[in-house]
């Protein structure tokens, strides 16, 4: 089952990323996520907010805070 989910994750045309809510770092992401962010290469280990526009950062930070609070 895990292999099936991994395949869906990797080949999806949608951007997908798994972000550690406590650190804000990207734990895993598919290639579409990197493309969408304009990054050539892997984005794992980077802080999500560092890859976003200044306008988008507060929204991302609020979403991560909500995840931590729940």
Overview features:
globular; 4 helices; 70 residues; mainly alpha
Secondary structure tally, helices? 4
Q: What structural category do the secondary elements indicate?
A: mainly alpha
What does the overall shape look like?
Answer: globular
Number of strands: 2
**Gyration radius, rounded:** 13 Å
How far do the termini sit from each other? 27 Å
Runs with pLDDT <50, length 5+?
Answer: none
- Largest sheet: spatial strand order: 1-2
The portion of residues assigned to helices is 40-55%
Please write the string of helix (H) and strand (E) elements. HEEHHH
% residues in beta strands: 5-15%
The profile of the biggest β sheet is:
2 strands, antiparallel
Description:
The protein is mainly α and 70 residues long. It has a two-stranded antiparallel ribbon with strand order 1-2. The chain has helices spanning 2-11, 31-36, 48-51, 57-69; strands spanning 17-19, 26-29. The protein is globular, with a radius of gyration of 13 Å. Helices cover 47% and strands 10% of the residues. The mean pLDDT is 95. It is built from four helices and two strands, in the order H-E-E-H-H-H.
